[in-house]
Amino acid sequence: MTVGTTPVAPAAPAPAEHPPPRRQRGRSTRSRYPLWFLLPGGGLLVLLFVVPTATSFYFSLTRWTLFDSTFIGLENYVTFFQDPQLFGSFVHTLVYAVITSVGKVVAGLALAILLNGRIIARGYLRAVVFFPVLVSAVGVGITFKVLFDPFDGLINRALGVVGIDGPGWLTNPDLALASVAMVDIWKGVGVSTLIFMAGLVAIPRDYYESAHIDGATDWQLFRFITLPLVGPATMTVVILNVISGLRSFELIWTMTGGGPGFTSDVLASVIYKKYQAGLYGLSTAGNVVMFVVVAAITIPLYRWFRRREVAQ
Amino acid sequence: MRSHSHIVRGLVAIAVSTIVFLVPFAFIVLTASKTSAEASQFEFSWPGDFVLLRNIAEVFKVRDFVIVRAFINSTTLTVSSVVVMVVLAAMMGYVVQRRTGLFTNAARMLVLAALIVPSAVVPTIWVLQALGLYKQMLGMILIEVTGGLPFCVLLCSAFVATIPRELDEAAALDGAGPLRVFFRVILPLLKPVVVTMVVVQSVAVFNDFTGPLYFLPGDENATVQATLFNFQSQTLSQWNLLFADILLITVPPLVLYVFFNRQIVEGMVNGAVKG
Amino acid sequence: MKSSNAPRRLVALIGSMAAVMCSAACSVGSLGTGDQAAGDTTITYLVFNEPSTVKAANALIAAFEKDNPQIKVKLDTMPTGSDGDNIVKTRLSTGEMSDVFSYNSGSLLQAIRPDEYLVSLSDQSWVKDLDKSYLPAVSTAKGLYGAPTGGSTPGGVVYNKAVYAKLGLKIPRTWDQFRANNLLIKKSGIAIPVEQTFGDAWTAQLVILADFANIAAVAPQWAADYTANKARNVDQPALSSWQHLRQLHDDGLLNKDFASATYDKGVQAIATGKAAHYPMLAGVIDAVRQNHPQYLKDIGMFAMPTATGTESHLTLFLPSGRYIPKTSTGAKLDAAKKFVAFTQTTQGCDLLVQSGSYGPFMNRLCKVPADAPAAIKELQTYVAAGNTGPALESVSPIKGPDLPQLAVEVGSGIRTADSGAKLYDQNVKQQAQQLGLPGW
């Protein structure tokens, strides 16, 4: 780990400082990082995640009314893939995940750097950026639905003042999804900023100081110190946002309900609508499909990040 | 010159952030202060009749002060599950990052899978029933812990990676056992990320609506998010009371944040990983 | 470590949190449970959490407890709509249902397997007071399971009487008359002819759903054929409802903010006379009473004008039922039956009316009050003439989940009536197959 090799606590010479002969056998990696540390958390995950999930995999192969179930093989999957709205919702899901992830990573990192630097009213700014995280998605959804109103909404009224005829943010089929994505970024950027800020703190100041003495520009400091060393935080932010983007539901549901029509329907909202309609087996099959989609995107991403981390 | 540009940058940041982040809040406050008829117009205007206090009193009075019970329940749920979640996640994240092998890889995959897969409601209820924990606060706490664990483990393992291995090696050489190393050396160093987890997860648990809806039914178990539905229905919405309620239930997370905001700053000033 | 007291502070913090946690956990148990004398029976009653429903339920409970001091009733609530639907199914199937609960009648009731999960109430004395049209909605071949929770909700067109008076318009019976009225109103410019509020997608369905009594009047077999996969939305007479929805848009009769307007805006527009018509449920009347009482006298309502006959029929959405699950036994079951019976007495009816329910009622002991709003009395003429019919969802188990979205698309001119009806047929098929209905 590069981060470990700071000028303050140099890592490379460590073996020399603590020569191997003094290392006790009992104090090897094995016992220093005991596996039972994984037990309480892992046990809970097995009990309340693996067991229910495995059970529901089975039910995705059935026609399930909650009261009883009939095994029907892969029929639910066939039905799910034949759904006329499915393809559109796939595309919407990907678009939404990309917009929100990129938005939160870029804006989060920018804000974190800004708020970690010397700036006036830092406490105020930090608080303000984090405020939206504190409100529930339902509250945010209701509020923005009103602010986005094409005629009476604050946003279009403000645009009207400067002579712009604002669009129907949530009612225009071409705009609805992007508008919700913007609100998602607004609501969620505080978390990304927080993670990035904590990540930035982990970068030893001495790096910047010595680079500064060598005459590095702000951009060079960012490009060659901040960006590479904030790596673990970036991974966390990217993975979390990609997953939540692909799975996102609450905000879309409260703001557009997938509409107008089906123009902002994502996988999660299609699945939820099946669930609402009492099509439990079908909706469970949809969940399995979504799991596969999210896994197919996230796991390679995660591997890639980890390889880079190890490579550094 | 530099400090001058700092101030300009700061002023721009203040102006932009105020508009982008605070105006929606102003809207919530204004609507919460209006009468029922005026609120349903959805205008961003000063209330003709400023009745915020009356609306809040109304919100409290609804259904025999159910909101008070809801606040107690939500606080219990949030505090307990976040404490357990953070400690368990830190332990898992630490070992997962430090060790490689069959079990840690399996644990890593398990965590990632749990992050990805949406929860299955009815089978989970079956498990809770089998354990005798359905409709129990303890059961709900375990559900929330399980739900937040993956996020926290991911965060922790990422940040354990920034802690030089030499630190725990040195501590171990001084004769400290693994528990002691973890609680005395590692956990304190994780402070910034612990604060992050506490804030983010507290907010998530406190704002969770569907979880308690399914796993903790019953009015004596009401949580704050459920109270929002006292003012919202398909045919008749009392927007002023709804927004007053949103305002009310946003206060605890806000207080939490204001409290921890200092901890975040402090953690940063101390430079937790300077060793 | 630079700051040696950091860990200590962290431990202190966690400690204090644990203290908070314990004190909260310890105190919460005593809150809200109340004191309970020995020998008392406590039952729980689960209702949807609409403010008016909760208010009515509390009034019922208070009166019932006064009459039966040895029984305590505890109110439980669940969200309206599909969340509540899932709660009911989840709690029934896991054996955790409240002792008495309110839930939909008709097709949705069949989906919760009344024979397996509910206590039959066929032998109760109040059954003889129920309207015959309601019985099939709460019964199976093996018994009757529910008592009506209130009056039916009529669906049709809410109109502004002031606008009608100003233009000397007559209440339309056929769709052509309705269209002529609309074009006149448009020409006069004094009001928006038809208010639509697609900001709440569910409101878009009314033009279609409230037309069903008209269709059933000319094709009584339609619902049965539909359930058996023999009748479709793409064919007449059902297609005409979809065509009407599209025509309202194409004639340029809608408010310009139809895509974003919400139900509340619709209520306001129709109350103030900004709009002349609003295809909606009679719930509008109560909303006007609450939010714009000064305009209540201007509100009227008529049945959806018909394109299939000469006389329009009022579509009635039947009231929910009160049910008792099989998990209620012994003293609790007796108390639950007592409570349900109480709701079907004259006193129960009075409480219902006091809390704002106007009928038409399903229990003959309940009478529409003399001081009901004019719009309610207007609707009584359809009841008196026998020109009413149940909504499709009361007589057929299939309702596709995508109807609101498809109705929005057709009503906004994004999709043609034919295409909307066709996609809806596909959507319905998915559900019918899932339900395992014969013929699909």
Blueprint (SSEs and pairs):
The complex is a heterotrimer of chains A (312), B (275) and C (440).
Chain A: H1 14-17, H2 29-32, H3 39-59, E1 62-64, E2 69-71, H4 75-82, H5 86-116, H6 122-134, H7 137-147, H8 154-161, H9 176-201, H10 205-213, H11 218-229, H12 231-247, H13 250-255, H14 267-276, H15 280-311
Antiparallel strand pairs in A: 1-2
Chain B: H1 2-32, H2 36-39, H3 52-61, H4 66-98, H5 102-116, H6 121-131, H7 137-160, H8 165-173, H9 178-189, H10 191-207, H11 210-215, H12 224-227, H13 239-270
Chain C: H1 6-28, E1 41-48, H2 51-67, E2 71-78, H3 81-93, E3 100-103, H4 107-110, H5 114-117, E4 139-140, E5 143-144, E6 147-148, E7 153-160, H6 161-167, H7 175-188, E8 192-194, H8 206-209, H9 212-218, H10 222-227, H11 238-250, H12 263-272, E9 275-281, H13 283-291, E10 299-302, E11 314-317, E12 321-323, H14 330-343, H15 346-354, H16 374-384, E13 388-390, H17 392-395, H18 403-411, H19 417-435
Parallel strand pairs in C: 1-2, 1-3, 8-9, 11-13
Antiparallel strand pairs in C: 3-12, 4-5, 6-12, 7-9, 7-10, 7-11
Quickly list its features:
heterotrimer; A: 312 residues; mainly alpha; two-stranded antiparallel ribbon; 2 strands; flat; disordered N terminus; B: 275 residues; globular; disordered C terminus
Question: Can you describe this structure?
Answer:
The complex is a heterotrimer of chains A (312), B (275) and C (440). Chain A has 312 residues and is an all-alpha fold. Chain A is 68% helix and 2% strand. By secondary structure, chain B is mainly α. In chain B, α1 runs antiparallel to α13 and α4 runs parallel beside α7 (137-160). Chains in contact: A-B, A-C, B-C. At the A-B interface, α2, α3, α6, α7 and α9 of A face α1, α4, α5, α6 and α7 of B.
